[in-house]
Each structure stands twice: as C-alpha cells, then as structure tokens.
Write a structure and sequence with these properties.
The protein is α+β, with helices and mostly antiparallel strands. It has a domain at 65-278 and 330-373: Cytochrome P450 (Cytochrome p450, Orthogonal Bundle). The protein contains 16 helices and nine strands. Strand 8 (360-362) and strand 9 form a beta hairpin. The longest helix has 33 residues, at 223-255. The protein is globular, with a radius of gyration of 20 Å. It binds protoporphyrin IX containing FE. Residues 56, 80-81, 92, 95, 141, 232-233, 236-237, 240-241, 244, 275-276, 279, 321-323, 327, 329-331, 334-335 line the site of protoporphyrin IX containing FE. Protoporphyrin IX containing FE (HEM) binds at residues 56, 80-81, 92, 95, 141, 232-233, 236-237, 240-241, 244, 275-276, 279, 321-323, 327, 329-331, 334-335.
Length: 377
C-alpha cells in the first residue's frame, strides 16, 4: 500500500517504493487533489528546473502573504533562492564566487573546533541529537561568514544565532502559524542587525561584498541585499543540513555498528534518504512541459527524492536533493562536510544512533525530511 500523495511522502517512514512507482508510471502528471502538477522522473524534474518560465515564486506573489510587510518578508524577498531573472543571476554569481573561495579542509577544521566548544548539555541522546543538528552546521556557516560567536566564561559557544536562524526558517514554511511568523519577524530583525554590525574582514561576507564589486558590472547589488544573502546562507544551511545529519543518524542506527567512512555514508544518504524531497515551481507564462500544456500560474512539484530513486537519474556526484539548473544549491559540498562533522561529533559525545530509532518521527514539513528524535523518558 503506497503513501497517500507526494506531500505525505516527505514524512512517511518509507516513501521510496511509492516514489519509484510514480517515476516509472506517472513521470509527469496532474494531481487534482493537491492542485499541482507533479514531476516524478529524473527527466521530467530536469526539464522543469531548466525551463525559463518555471519560477521559484508565483509572479504576483514574490513574498508569501503571511510574511509580506514584515521584517521577515523583507529578508525573504531579497534571498537569491526566492528571486528569478537578472537579479537572481547577478546574486547567484556573487554567491558562487564567494563560496568557491571556501577552503573545505579548513572549514572542517573550524567545524571540529566549534564542536569541541559545544558542551553536551542533555543526558538524553535524542535531545542532544535534535539540538546539535540544528545548531552546529549553522554556527559553522556563521563562523565562515566572519561573524563572531559569543562564548561564556568556560569558553562554550553560544547557540543563540542558530536559534534565531531556525526560528526564521520555520516562519518561511507554509505550515507556519501566526505565532511562528511573529517570531520569524523578530528573528529577521535580530539577524539583520547582528550580521550588519559584526561582520569581520576576511570572512565569507566580506568575500561576497568583494565579489559584488568584481562581478556585478551592470547589476547594482545594494548592501541590504548582500547582507540578506549572507544571512540566507545560514538559513539555507539550517533545516536541510539538519535533515542530512538526522537521516544519516537513522541510517547508522539501522546499520547497527558504526562502520565505514562517514563522508561516503553522508553522500549515500543524500541520494537514498534525502533531506530535501521536493521543490516547487510556478509558471510565469503558458508553456508546454513534458508534452503537457500548462497555464500561467500553474504550480509544479518537482520530486527530487523520486528523481534520486529513478534508475535513469543516478547522479552520485551531485545528489538530486541539492537541486539542479539555475537555482541548484551552491553549498552542496559544504553541506555534506558539515553533516559528516556533526554526526562524527555526536558519535564522539557517545550518542548511540541505535537508541534514537525507538523515538523516530519526522517533523511536519511539506518538503524537508528531518527526523525528530523523541526522548526516551
Ligand atoms: C543538506 C543540506 C542542503 C540541501 C539538501 C540543500 C538543497 C538545496 C536545494 C534543493 C536548493 C534549490 C532549491 C530549488 O531549486 O528550488 C538549494 C538552494 C540553495 N542552497 Fe542549499 N542545500 C543544503 C545546504 C546548503 C548550505 C550549507 C548552503 C550554504 C552555506 C546552501 C546554500 C544554498 C543557496 C544560497 C541556495 C539558493 C541558490 C539559488 O536559488 O540559486 N545550501 N539548496
């Protein structure tokens, strides 16, 4: 018996037989109940993500109505992830250039150093795993950006910035309640002020400013947009990397013995139990996609997780969960490194993945598969 639909699949215990069935039998179809077109095969997904009229936001709604007019909406509307056309191309060039300058071995060393200064706060493995997966990757990106992380007298790193980033990320979800949106607005204000006041020279944020000067000859990228996109890197790192950490812990728990190379395991999990399961596109004009006639305003759900399980779409070097085409993730290598380091740090703190399985659920989400480990008491 298959799961109900592609949205329910995201948090289903085992959606992969369903995804494979969809990719094989209904590669591109209209789901009347969801009111969405669904691209399930690798070919269909690639075609949608490459199409110039397939935009990341509905044309008439650049910012979700719940966020519009708030500081959270102002931040959202500036993100490269949420923008199309010439502004997107200019910003993407800046982000790619700055990120290409990251020294990955050095990033791993810095991530390990940060992990060493995060104390084990909870006795329970589940609490600890939930906390770290939403904390360490974001703190590492903040550190790479050149933002100063607070420390207490014992030298322990404060996780405050990661809390604000997670709060903002939650406010962007279609499942956000009014209280989440309100908290997201406060978080956006805090992050904007903090990042604006504290960026140190030599970090990724400074590299983005330099890249904006070097690359954006015709496009004028204002400082507020640059700052928003520096904060955007922490936001992008938050939920998806937490999902990759959590899904890797689940895999380790099922394997029983912690064995093999963690980088390889993370790469495999990114393909076989991916954290980002789908992404949406909105038609800016009538268009023919995968042989079907779509109308302006139609929405398409691209099932990245189904493409990943489509035998015709095997791409071990660039897992589908990182997307493809113009909006493809520029942080994939860093994300895998941060996930592996976070898992490794949890193992070193004696978190036993086998003990996490008993309380395994998934956080409610329409696109991200992120375990929520329930404490044992
Ligand atoms: C496991 C972790 C991650 C996953 C699965 C992931 C996945 C994705 C996906 C699927 C997209 C494209 C969305 C679309 O086309 O609709 C994306 C975009 C993006 N990601 Fe990631 N990401 C991860 C971590 C990161 C990290 C660590 C960073 C940076 C520090 C990052 C930076 C970005 C940015 C800036 C974009 C927007 C690119 C654009 O719109 O052109 N991501 N990511």
């Amino acid at each position: 018996m298959y799961v109900a639909d592609p949205i329910a699949a995201v948090t289903d215990p085992d959606p992969y037989p369903y995804y494979r069935h969809l990719a094989a039998t209904r590669p591109f179809h209209h789901d009347a109940a969801l009111g969405l077109w669904v691209a399930a095969s690798a070919d269909a997904g690639a075609e949608v993500l490459a199409h110039p009229d397939c935009r990341v936001r509905p044309v008439a709604q650049p910012v979700p109505p719940a966020l519009a007019g708030t500081p959270a909406g102002a931040l959202f509307g500036r993100l490269v992830r949420m923008t199309d056309g010439a502004p997107h191309a200019a910003l993407k060039a800046v982000v790619m250039r700055a990120m290409a300058g990251i020294d990955l071995p050095d990033a791993r060393t810095r991530a390990r150093a940060l992990a060493a200064h995060l104390p084990r706060a909870e006795a329970d493995d589940a609490h600890e795993a939930n906390r770290w997966m939403f904390t360490l990757p974001v703190l590492c990106v903040a550190d790479l950006l050149g933002l100063p992380l607070e420390r207490d007298e014992a030298g322990h790193v404060s996780t405050r910035v990661a809390g604000f980033v997670a709060t903002f990320a939650a406010a962007m979800s279609p499942l956000a309640r009014p209280a989440d949106v309100e908290a997201g607005a406060v978080a956006a204000q805090w992050l904007t002020r903090w990042a604006g006041e504290h960026a140190a020279p030599g970090g990724l944020l400074a590299a983005m400013s330099q890249a904006a000067i070097d690359t954006a000859i015709d496009a004028d990228i204002d400082p507020a947009t640059l700052l928003a996109n520096a904060i955007g890197l922490m936001i992008q790192a938050c939920e998806a990397t937490a999902g990759l950490v959590g899904n890797t812990l689940v895999r380790l728990g099922r394997l029983g013995e912690a064995s093999g190379d963690l980088d390889e395991l993370v790469a495999d999990v990114a393909c076989t139990d991916p954290p980002v399961q789908n992404t949406r596109r909105f038609l800016a004009a009538d268009a023919t996609l995968c042989g079907e006639s779509l109308k302006a305003g139609d929405a398409v759900l691209v099932l990245l997780a189904a493409a990943s399980h489509d035998p015709a779409g095997a791409r071990p070097d660039r897992p589908w969960t990182f997307g493809t085409g113009r909006h493809g993730c520029p942080g994939d290598a860093l994300a895998r490194l941060l996930a592996a380091t976070t898992v490794d740090s949890l193992l070193q703190r004696d978190v036993d993945p086998r003990r996490l399985l008993a309380g395994l659920r998934y956080r409610p989400s329409v696109n991200a598969r992120i375990p929520l480990f329930t404490p044992s008491h």
